[in-house]
Structure formats: C-alpha cells, structure tokens
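Milestone M4 deliverable, item 7.
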Amino acid sequence: MPIVPDTKNWTWVIERSCDECGFDASAFAPQQVAGMIRANAAAWPAVLARRDAKVRPDDSTWSPLEYGAHVRDVFRIFHTRLGLMLELDNPLYPNWDQDETAVSDRYNEQDPALVSREIVEDAEALALRLESVPADGWSRTGTRGDGAEFTIASFATYLAHDPIHHLWDVRG
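Output delivered:
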C-alpha cells in the first residue's frame, strides 16, 4: 500500500530524503516538478505493459497497475487542488481516501493500456498548470481538510515524492 505520512507531520516529505526510495525533495526546486512529472509519467507505460502488471507481490502490497492508477489519480487530484489554489484565496479542499478509491474504483481491474495513457495525459495537464504558476504565485496557500497547510511551492515539492516513490515501489 502507499506510504502515507502522518497528516499532522507531512513536512518530512519535503525536508529530507525518503528512507525507502531515496528521493530528497529538499534538494528539488518547485519549478522543477513539471519536468519531473513528465519524466515519471513516461516510465509508467513500460511498467504497465509488463506481464506482472496485475500481480500483487503479497496481500498487503499493490500491484503495478494499482500503483499506476493511484499515480494517475494523484495527478488528477493535485491538478484540481492546484487550480483551486491559483483561483481562490486559501481554499479548503477535502481529504482524499486513496485506499477507499483503490477499492471503489477497482484499480486492479482497470485496463493497463488505458491507465498508461491517462497517466501521461494527466501528468501533462498537471505539468502545464504548474508551469502556469506566476513568479509571485508560489506563495499562494491552500488547506487540506485535515488542517495541513500548503503553499503552492510546498504543495509542488510534496507532490514530487509520490510518483517517484511509487515508480520505485514497482521498480520501474
């Protein structure tokens, strides 16, 4: 299952390197996230074309397809939230139960080829929106339903870890 930090202490994701995947978001500028998203998305079609795309390594670990569908949805959720942050003053956006979504949307029953295309398309839409952030917009804020507060800069840096970590999860 995805590694989810304590929502009260989410900042570890942007302050230090991940003990598992090694990604260090603190060394990553928010303006670099758009390029990272595109590069990450480009790696998923090969992962989802593998014969084991629907195979869970064990009962508590998602299959590559489930991770891919999750990454696609991360791109979609962050695209929407970024739009709110750009358009509204300190919007409040609801939490997202990623585990419930995986079950209700039947991630492991989805078409790997379609999920591959959607990852690339949704990553591009998010990358373009990130590239549209004006120089003075990186300090705009938004608040998640659990009270976690982000600037667009911290939001982008927080985002960077998730798809990289999940590509590492599937060894893509």
